[in-house]
Amino acid sequence: MDELRAALTSAGSTAAVMAIYAFVWLITGSLAALAELAHTLVDAIAVTVTVFAVKTSRKPPDVEHPYGHYKADTLGGLFGSVIVLIAAALIAYEAVERLLAWEPFTPDLFAAVAVVAAIAIDLNRVSILRRFKRSKALSADALHFTTDIFASAAVLVDFVIAMALASISYSLFREISPLVDVAMAAAITAIFASLSFRLLKASAIELLDYSPPDVVQEVEKVARGINGVVGVKDIRVRKAGEIYHGELTIEVPRGLSVEEAHEIADEVEKRVKEMLGGVVTVHVEPTS
């Protein structure tokens, strides 16, 4: 299974989980289930973006995109994080309405079984996505859907508590269940709102061409290890999807011919490109 097929499999899993939570919400009216339904709607957007990003990142550089199409992934992450925040705001509004009205939901054993099925689907999805550690888009999805498993577990706990309360005393259930439901919905919303802020920050940093110091140091180490290089300066790297583009200036001994200096620069470019994965430009200067 390649990366694109894994992304498409994840999209199919999202459709299945969405259908399950739509069914669960319709028969129970649970706010926690509604929160997860909203979450799966966001997941659908995120998975669509991942499929698009994987497909687009495979396109080779062209005249209009000499550095490739890798930043489509970053733009998708930025867009997806905003959608998550909007969904979180809607669920928060619904939670306030539920508290003001104090409306209990209808616990249902079949709905609980359906949530277990959703957890099983997500477990299978995560096991597939974790195989592709080199793809940051799929690795991020694996982390995201791992949190979905815990969110679904929270919905299941919500249903179990509600059914236990209803079996003990229906009046007690009516008094407490709205608070339990809202608390679980709040926990779920907090999880994916927190993730969205982290993704938003990471996407913004990447779009601003942040140059990680550790990557710069590694580039300098690789370049200095090439025979003929006596100095390295002006190192710049910028992230694009799962790769880095870079440029640097190397200093070579005076008196070398153009051909000799070019051979050294070619070796530096080759080695640094192996490390970064993107376009690498090497400038050559004689030692001062």
Number of separate structural domains: 2
Give the percentage of residues in beta strands. Answer: 5-15%
Question: What is the fold-level CATH name, i.e. the topology of the largest domain?
Answer: Alpha-lytic protease prodomain-like
Strands, total number: 3
Shape verdict: elongated
What's the helical proportion of residues? over 70%
Largest sheet: 3 strands, mixed
Cα gyration radius (Å): 26 Å
User: Strand pairing plus helix content: what structural class?
Assistant: mainly alpha
CATH homolog superfamily of the largest domain: Cation efflux protein transmembrane domain
Report on this model:
This is Cation diffusion facilitator family transporter. It comes from Thermoproteus sp. AZ2. With 288 residues, the chain is mainly alpha-helical. The protein folds into two domains: 3-207, Alpha-lytic protease prodomain-like (Up-down Bundle), CATH 1.20.1510.10; 213-286, Alpha-Beta Plaits (2-Layer Sandwich), CATH 3.30.70.1350. It contains eight helices and three strands. The chain has helices spanning 3-28, 31-57, 72-101, 109-129, 136-168, 170-207, 213-224, 258-276, and strands at 231-240, 243-252, 277-286. The chain has a three-stranded mixed sheet with strand order 1-2-3, with helices on one face. Helix 4 (109-129) packs antiparallel against helix 5. The model has no long low-confidence stretch (mean pLDDT 81).
